[in-house]
Specification:
It is found in: Membrane. The chain is mainly α and about 625 residues long. The chain has helices at about 1-15, 15-30, 30-35, 40-60, 65-70, 70-80, 85-90, 95-110, 115-125, 130-145, 150-165, 175-180, 225-235, 240-260, 270-280, 290-315, 340-355, 360-375, 405-415, 445-450, 455-470, 475-480, 490-505, 510-530, 530-540, 555-560, 565-590, 595, 625-630, and strands at about 195, 210-215, 340, 380-385, 390. The strands form two sheets. A three-stranded antiparallel β-sheet has the order 1-2-3. Helix 4 runs antiparallel to helix 6 (about 70-80), helix 8 (about 95-110) runs parallel beside helix 19 (about 405-415) and helix 14 runs antiparallel to helix 16 (about 290-315).
Amino acid sequence: MATGKLRLTENVLSFWKSIVFLITPVILCPLPFYYANTENSKIAACAYAVIIMAVYWTGDILPLAVTALLPIAMFPILGVQPSRKVCINYLNDMNFLMIGGLMVAVAMERWNLHKRIALKAVLMVGVEPRWLMLGMMSVTAFLSMWISNMATTAMMVPIAQAISAEILKEKGPEEREEGQGQKKTLTSDDENTVLLSTRTSRNEQSQELPLENIAVEKCDDDDDDDDMDLLADQARPSAEQADKVTKGLLLCICYAANIGGTATLIGTAPNILVVQTVQTMFPKSPGIDFASWFFFGFPTMVLTLLLAWLWLQWQFVSQSCVPGCASRRGCGGKCQRHKNVAAYKAIRRQYDELGPFSFAESVVLVHFILLVLLWFFRDMKFIKLENGQAAGWAYFFVRDYVTDSSAVLLICLSLFIWPARPPSRGREDLHPSDDEPGPSILDWPTVERNLSWEVIILLGGGYALADGVKVSGLSAWMGQGFRGLEGFSPAFIVIIITIMIAFITEFSSNTSAASIFLPILGTLAQGICVHPYYLMIPAAIACSFAFMLPVATPANAIVFSYGRIKVLDMAKSGLGLNLLCLFVLNIAINTYGVPLYQLQDFPPWTVCTAPVTTAGPSGTPANITTLVGN
């Protein structure tokens, strides 16, 4: 009997997602029914839809993109908005900005430009673990600024696996037992050669790699057996050291991918969401363009990336693992260096396999640079001309007609037309068949196959949610409830918000968390009379600071799937990194973020729903002095 009950319980629990899917709307249904015939009917109906979407997103009850489509069905049925107005949110200006950015990323991936950049950077920094980690993080962060974090991580992790296999070989069982029993000395025949064994990644077949030569600078006194023992120990890292550094190399990639996406508008979905939410809730605001976001996001990204590198050094790379200068007995204090020739050759071999810099790569690189320039110089609000008008090429056209999405789609159109190889007329070195037209840099089957359509739908669901919250009056109702926070400093509120969001995104999608919280924070800013950017921009960036769990981001999941990282490893290193990044973020928004976004003044394009006595002094967010004094 007990066994039957246990089996029934297990069967029920195996369908827990279906149960939550069915029960959640039923449990919450009293909310819209109770307020059905009151003036708050739309508010209750919108809150009903928002809570259901939050439960589905947080519990991963449905695929994220499917949950993002719920407003199309629920808002019209509940009387929040007509369907034609809800659907507009799924293909608006910001969504096309993301589509264009993803198309450029597809072009980079198709012609391996991103891989060439990564391998070249690794060759430049060398193969020492400390600087190799910095090089890997810098490349990953840079690529994540322009292509998706998941694609960047998927490309960089195999490179890290190959590098770690060459640099830090794992000791075999026999070698470990021998090392525990006694030291192994080097003879004259193997003085410059150390035999190490390794195993490949979980996605490759196990095989024994070729012997690896370690180039060693000899001491003047090399007759001392103890010196040779020490030399062997330095040349061969222990199994524990090898494992630690390998984990550090893998973790640094997913962490750098999450951090790098915060630097640009197209780097990650929450960045785009905050721009569209501002436009939806505050239509008279000047908005946030690519340049204004970059001037705040890029310095913050660099600072957090450096702190992440130092943190991972302290956690995973000990001094004994890092080749350098060390004084040793019998060498007279001379420098000892160990250069891993095999590791360098392995990286060089991967780079050489790409061949010479191709015409297609040159075309993609030129288009990419042109796109960045178009984004930066479209609307330079920080430069005022004599007539008071801001500088920028967009002012040659009808005012406010040209946006960042216009620029990126122009570049995408060019990529669909531009050939992948130069014309062959007049060149005798080419085969006659090369006279035929080559493929274009981009074609639709490639875009259709590689474009992340899920991200586009997720963004649309977030925009629809923010629009519904505003139209239904739910945002105004929440603004009344937020008046109780007037007694707290806005700086303290930002700290609490960023910590809360950073830990919530450990269990839910970054995009879904931003979709839920950004409209609430926009209303909260009105309720406590501070600049909306002061709360919304740090919240959007905090959505990317999810470092503790494999399920937090696709980048974390990819690294975890290789089997070298344990959940405890990620949680221990991720917790400290979360706190460090949040510290930098809060310092940034209260320092150079203030003059950049004029946070010291409450903007005229929004409405304060709480009484304000005096504004804060220059250099601090509006109302901060009054709130602190209360």
